[in-house]
UniProtKB/TrEMBL annotation:
Catalysis: reaction(s): 2-C-methyl-D-erythritol 4-phosphate + CTP + H(+) = 4-CDP-2-C-methyl-D-erythritol + diphosphate
Name of the protein described by the UniProt record: 2-C-methyl-D-erythritol 4-phosphate cytidylyltransferase
The species this protein was found in: Candidatus Avimonoglobus intestinipullorum
Record GO biological process: isopentenyl diphosphate biosynthetic process, methylerythritol 4-phosphate pathway
Described function: Catalyzes the formation of 4-diphosphocytidyl-2-C-methyl-D-erythritol from CTP and 2-C-methyl-D-erythritol 4-phosphate (MEP).
Amino acid sequence: MVSGIIVAAGRGSRMKAEQNKVYLPLCGKPVLQHTVQAFLDCSCIGELVIVTRACDVEQCRALFQEQGVKIVEGGATRQESVYRGLRQITGDIAVIHDGARALVTPALIGQTVLACREHGAAAAGVQCKDTLKTVDANGFIVGTPDRNVTYQIQTPQVFESEKIRVAHERALREHVEATDDCGLYERYFGRIKMVPGSYENIKLTTPEDLLLAERILEGRKGGFYADRTGI
C-alpha cells in the first residue's frame, strides 16, 4: 500500500499572516484542502496522514473529518514532523509532500510512486532556469555549476517506508539535520531518481505566491487541475 504524508506543521512567517499559511484561503478553499484533494484523487494512495501544529489539530480535523484522513501533531522541526508521520503509516511506500505545495497534481504523485517502485526512491524536481553561482565565506563567486545537471527539488518525495524511517531514526541518533527527506536518504541509502516536476508546483511562501497560485488554479479546468487521473 502507498501512504501519503502531508506536512503542514510550519509557521510560514514569510507569508506575514496570523495563522498557519496552509489554512489561508486560495480560490475559496484553504490551501491545504487543495493539497489534500490531489492526494484523494490519486488512485494509488491507500492512506493519508496530515501532520500539523498542535494548535491547528482541531481545525484540521474539522476540515477533513469525512475523508478518513489521519491527523497527527507535528514536532518542533519539519524533520521531526515527518518522522512523526512516518510512525503512523502502514504502507510499504511513503509519499512525503509539503502541505503548502497546493498545485500538485494526481498525475505527478502517481509518476513519483511509479519511479520509486522501479528505482527504490524518487522525487519531483525541475531543471534550474537561472544560472547559479557558488560563493565563498566572504560572498565572492567561486564557481558556476552546470545548469544542465542542476535541479530545484520539490515534493512529492517518495521512498520505501522502512528505509526512510530508518534514515530518520539514524539522523535523530546522530544529530543530523537535513532540509528535506532526500538529504537523509542520500546520506544513509544512496541514489534517488529525479522525476520531472512542474514549474507550477510551487511552495506557497509569500503573499505573491498566493496570487500566482490563484491565477494558475483559475486557468485549470474545474478549479483544481486539468488532469484528475492518478495511477
